[in-house]
Amino acid sequence: MGKIHVLLKKEDLNRKKLDGKVVVVFDILLATSTITAVLEHGANEVIPVLNGEEAKREACKTGKENCILVGEYQGLTLEGFLSPSPSNLIEQVKEKTVILSTTNGTVAMKNAHAANEVYAASLLNSVSVANEILQYYENETIILACSGSSGEFNIEDFYGAGYFIECLKKYSKEGLEWDLTDTAMTAHQFYLGKVNQAEEVLQNSRVGRKLVEMGIHHDIGYVAKKDVCFVVPYLKDGTYVIHKKFKR
Fold first, then answer.
1. 15-24, 58-67, 157-166, 200-209: which range is least confident on average?
2. Quick one: how far is CA 246 from the chain centroid?
3. What is the rounded CA–CA span in Å between residue 206 and residue 73?
4. Rounded distance, CA 22 to CA 89, Å?
5. DSSP readout, 101-135?
6. What is the mean pLDDT of residues 154-175?
7. What angle do CA 230, 125, 12 make, to 5 degrees?
8. Within its chain, how far is the Cα of 77 from the centroid?
9. Distance CA 141, CA 196 (A)
10. Angle between helices 206-213 and 155-171 (to 10 degrees)
């Protein structure tokens, strides 16, 4: 029997407790949705970084002609960077390395680095990531890490974790049971109560309202779509580089 636990924010990731665990990171608005979208639309890889300075150092190592810098801090696009708006990026990333700096999601990916495996999931690709886990880790402990925002809980990540649990349960082979912690059970029940209200949940969230105020509300409708991407983003071989594989 596999076990599912949900962490409510990235600050809850304890590196000492990640050894041997599988971690799935959620930052629905917007980092893990952006990672999903750019890899699905042809980016070679994504390098998550902690801030703009680290992004520039990575660009120098990678070769500026082969990469694009994407980043925000507290919702504001970093100077000289592209906005992490997935719907605007998908036409610009083919065969590029995307160096991505965000306030929460990329930090969560790096904080989870000590785990046995680290994946990035969103509403766009949860079915594919869930099927990957069911193929290789169905009897292990799966930690669903909500990124949160500035140390606070975010409802859209909690909704995403609940949807992911539903995908694991729906596509598990007959007879496979999952042991849900209280937070995992609550996330799943919350999702079941709002199955067809993804865009409404995202738009009414604190981050969603901020995106609407900033005039980039079109991304909310884009990232609220379920099961439209087949990419599985993962940290490869102990590096900080997010690679991809595809699974249906």
1. 58-67
2. 16
3. 16
4. 29
5. E-SSHHHHHHHTTTSSEEEEE-TTTHHHHHHHHHH
6. 96
7. 140
8. 19
9. 28
10. 120
Q: Percent of the chain scored above 70 by pLDDT? A: 98
Enter the tokens of residue 128: 């594919």
User: 1, 179 in Cβ contact below 8 A?
Assistant: yes
What tokens were used for 211?
């995106």
- Round to whole Å and give the CA distance between 238 and 96: 21
The DSSP line for the chain is -EEEEEESSGGG--GGG-TT-EEEEE-TTTHHHHHHHHHHTT-SEEEEESSHHHHHHHHHHH-GGGEEEEEEETTEEPTTSB---HHHHTTT-TT-EEEEE-SSHHHHHHHTTTSSEEEEE-TTTHHHHHHHHHHH-TTSEEEEEE--BTTB--HHHHHHHHHHHHHHHHHSPTT--EEE-HHHHHHHHHHHHTTT-HHHHHHHSHHHHHHHHTT-THHHHHHT--S---EEEEE-TTSS-EEEEE--
The CA R_g of the chain, rounded to the nearest whole Å, is 17
DSSP designation for 235: E
3-state secondary structure of 30: coil
Distances (CA, A) of 159 to 22, 67, 148, 168: 20, 32, 12, 14
Specify the pLDDT at position 239.
65
Query: What is the model's pLDDT at position 82?
Result: 93
Which segments of 16-104 does DSSP mark as H helices, in order?
31-40, 52-62, 86-89
Question: Two tokens at 96?
Answer: 């590029």
List the structure tokens of 57.
């150092």
